[in-house]
């Protein structure tokens, strides 16, 4: 069984200049924006597409999300990727959390003397 861990990606501190279309429901607006990856030159961009959130990943792929569920988890239907957001006390989004499954096969035991 794989263990699931989360990677926290803080929201960009740069001013968000993206205009939000009036057709975007208010409940989705706090999540929209860019989330830079600190150890990489890429970023995740959260947009509204269809009737829910979508995430553009650094490779350029756009994943349409479903959710959130009762735990606040957003999922990509086919890839099973999971995302959530951390909010501050005022309901503003502070960061994107990417939930990742790590598979680490066991290698042999080290010999002891």
Characterization of the model:
The chain is an all-beta fold and 113 residues long. The chain has a single domain (3-102), classed as Lipocalin (Beta Barrel), CATH 2.40.128. The chain has no helices and 8 strands. It has an 8-stranded antiparallel beta sheet, with no helix packed on it. Strand 7 (82-87) and strand 8 form a beta hairpin. The model has no long low-confidence stretch (mean pLDDT 81).
What kind of sheet is the major sheet?
8 strands, antiparallel
Within the CATH hierarchy, at the fold level, what is the topology? Answer: Lipocalin
CATH first level: which class? Mainly Beta
Low-confidence stretches: none
- Order of helical and strand elements: EEEEEEEE
| Order of strands in the sheet with most strands | 1-8-7-6-5-4-3-2
Number of strands: 8
Q: Please give the domain count.
A: 1
CATH architecture classification: Beta Barrel
- Per DSSP, what share of the residues sits in E-state strands of 2 or more residues? 35-45%
What is the number of helices?
Answer: 0
Mean pLDDT, to the nearest integer, reads: 81
What would you report as the Rg, rounded to the nearest angstrom?
Answer: 17 Å
Distance between the termini: 32 Å
- What general outline do the C-alpha atoms trace? elongated
The helix fraction, in percent, is under 10%
Overall structural class, as computed from helix and strand content, comes to mainly beta
């Amino acid at each position: 069984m794989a263990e699931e861990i989360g990677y926290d990606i803080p929201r960009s501190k740069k001013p968000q200049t993206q205009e939000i279309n009036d057709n975007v429901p208010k409940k989705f607006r706090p999540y929209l924006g860019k989330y830079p990856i600190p150890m990489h030159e890429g970023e995740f961009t959260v947009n509204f597409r269809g009737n829910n959130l979508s995430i553009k990943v650094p490779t350029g792929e756009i994943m349409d999300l479903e959710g959130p569920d009762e735990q606040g988890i957003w999922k990509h239907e086919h890839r099973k990727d999971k995302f959530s957001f951390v909010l501050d006390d005022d309901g503003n989004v502070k960061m994107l959390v990417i939930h990742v499954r790590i598979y680490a096969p066991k290698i042999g035991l080290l010999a002891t003397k």
